[in-house]
Design brief:
alpha+beta, about 210 residues, about 35% helix, single chain, binds zinc ion
């Protein structure tokens, strides 16, 4: 691992610890990655508490096929295929996946076991955090939580390739939330916006703040 890669590993570990402290990565859940170059990404290891990762707990994987480049003690996240699918389809530089409570609850309310569903947010201020051309609405996909994680990656990649205006966030039904961006911080900020939007929807029962007749 180069010095720059080691710095990136430290930043990922610090962000994972912060999200763990917030209760968004319970048990060994959650995973974070950042691109090293066009062909490689650095991702958190599988089956480890995200509250106490060391830089050596991160693994270099190939974006093309999700395989680990160098086999150390850590294995790459079981959800690596979702990260690499996002990279191949979006050109983003970082992906953050966690199990924040409100987003996960919304994924259950709006998602299902078989089909890709959508939860739409309208007119909430926080939609601006997604950086969409139209900040007035965001149609967030809710993917089925397939047993084969690679199949979730396939769903995500084809969805993002088809929906060019899709927001940089997604939900997996009964599972959690994922966000991406040009930096680790942007991906995390977008995940925070999604979680806050989901909290508002659950508190108000409305996917937009105003009554339809207004
Ligand atoms: Zn997960």
């Amino acid at each position: 691992m180069t010095t720059m890669d080691a710095v990136l590993a430290d930043r990922i570990a610090a962000m994972a610890a912060a999200l763990y402290q917030r209760g968004w990565m319970p048990g060994t859940a959650g995973n974070i990655s950042a691109r090293l170059d066009d062909d490689h990404a650095l991702i958190t290891g599988s089956g480890l508490s995200k509250g106490e990762l060391a830089a050596s707990d991160l693994v270099v994987v190939r974006v093309g096929d999700s395989s680990a480049v160098a086999r150390g003690s850590a294995r790459p996240s079981a959800e690596t295929t979702i990260h690499t699918a996002v990279y191949r389809a979006s050109g983003s530089r970082a992906v953050v996946h966690a199990h924040p409570p409100y987003a996960t609850a919304v994924s259950i309310r709006y998602g299902g076991p078989d089909l890709i569903d959508t939860v739409s947010f309208e007119d909430y201020e926080l939609i601006k955090g997604f950086g969409l051309a139209d900040p007035g609405r965001a149609h967030v996909p809710v993917f089925p939580n397939r047993v084969e994680v690679a199949a979730i990656g396939d769903d995500v990649e084809s969805y993002l390739n088809d929906e060019v205006n899709a927001p940089p966030v997604m939900l997996i039904a009964g599972h959690g939330a994922t966000a991406w961006g040009t930096s680790l911080e942007q991906a995390r900020d977008r995940l925070e916006c999604l979680e806050a939007l989901c909290e508002l929807v659950l508190l108000t029962g409305r996917s937009r703040p105003w009554k339809p007749e207004r």
